[in-house]
Structure formats: C-alpha cells, structure tokens
Design a protein that fits this description.
Shape: elongated
Structural class: mainly alpha
Low-confidence stretches: none
Order of helices and strands: HHHHHHHHH
Distance between the termini: 48 Å
Mean pLDDT: 92
Helix content: over 70%
C-alpha cells in the first residue's frame, strides 16, 4: 500500500475511533465514517472488505495499542506500582477532560454494546484488555497476587473512567488512584 493509501486508511480508523468514543458502535455508521474521514466510499471497502465490523475491530485494536504504548511509557518512568497507577489515571483523565468528557475508554463502549452478540468484536476487545492486563501484571511482577491485582486495577480504572465521564469530573479518578495506591503499595 502506498503512502496515500495508508493515509486514507488512517483517516478512516481515526474517524471511526472518534465516532465510537462519542456515540458508541451505533454512532459509527459507515456513512458517518465516510463523512468524518473525507475518504471515498470505495476506499472504505477497499481497506476494510469485512465492512463495519472489520473497521471497528481494527479501530479498537489500534486504540488499544496506543493506550498500551502509553502504559509502557508510564511504567518506565514510575518508581513504584502505586506511582504507575496514579500516572495511568492522570493520563486517562487528561485525555477524557481534554476531549470534553467524550473520550473515555476506547474499548469499553464497544465491549458493552457488542461483546454479547458479535464474536469478532468481542475478540478484539478481549485482546486489548488482555494486553493491558499484561502490562499491569508486568509492573506488579514478583507479587504472588499479580494476576488478580492486574485485573482488579484494570476494573477499577475502567469503572473510574465511566464515573468520571458520567459526572464530568476527575474526582472518581483521583479517588480510585488513592485506593489503588493502597492496594499495590
């Protein structure tokens, strides 16, 4: 694929992610994606012959890798597991607040809306969550409860993002950061 093709594909994925985070799976209709990306309809089907589910699945995976990369960067700069958890919540809170409370978790909405009925999208969401758990588990290495604690921390982060978005407040993120600090400290 040439540079122009890669740019078009990226625009389609960017538009899909924005639409999913703002309006969920139903808000990312193909017509909306085409309009938001400025890409021709034929390009959408060229790059994503599997249609909407392929487009959304790849968007979820791509967003998951971006958040995963941020987790790795934060893990490298944190001196403790508690500091790492606090930095993750701060990063995600910044992302949420800067978006006008529209960008919570790029995976949660799709998981909630489709995981029970759409196998390929459930798989995409599961893969992303598993990679995030692995990143958290790596930061907790050496602890006998690292597996359970990684899942617990991820669940607390996801819940805090949902509450922060619903309340349009960072307070749930700050509270959860303090509790995670106690759990992993």
């Amino acid at each position: 694929m040439g540079l122009k093709g890669a740019e078009t594909r990226d625009r389609l994925l960017d538009a899909t992610q924005e639409l999913i985070e703002a309006g969920g799976y139903p808000g990312a209709g193909l017509n909306q994606v085409i309009a938001a990306s400025g890409a021709p309809r034929g390009s959408l089907y060229f790059h994503f012959p599997g249609g909407k589910d392929q487009l959304v699945g790849e968007s979820v995976r791509r967003a998951g890798r971006a958040i995963g990369g941020a987790l790795e960067d934060l893990a490298d700069s944190a001196s403790s597991a508690a500091e790492f958890a606090e930095a993750v919540l701060r990063h995600l809170g910044d992302r949420l607040e800067e978006s006008g409370w529209r960008k919570g978790c790029p995976v949660a909405t799709v998981a909630l809306e489709t995981a029970g009925t759409n196998g390929p999208l459930q798989e995409a969401c599961s893969e992303v969550y598993a990679s995030w758990e692995a990143a958290l588990r790596a930061r907790l290495a050496g602890r006998p409860d690292a597996d359970d604690l990684a899942v617990t921390v991820l669940a607390l982060v996801e819940g805090a993002l949902l509450l922060a978005r619903a309340h349009r407040s960072r307070d749930p993120l700050d509270r959860v950061a303090r509790r995670i600090g106690v759990l992993v400290g």
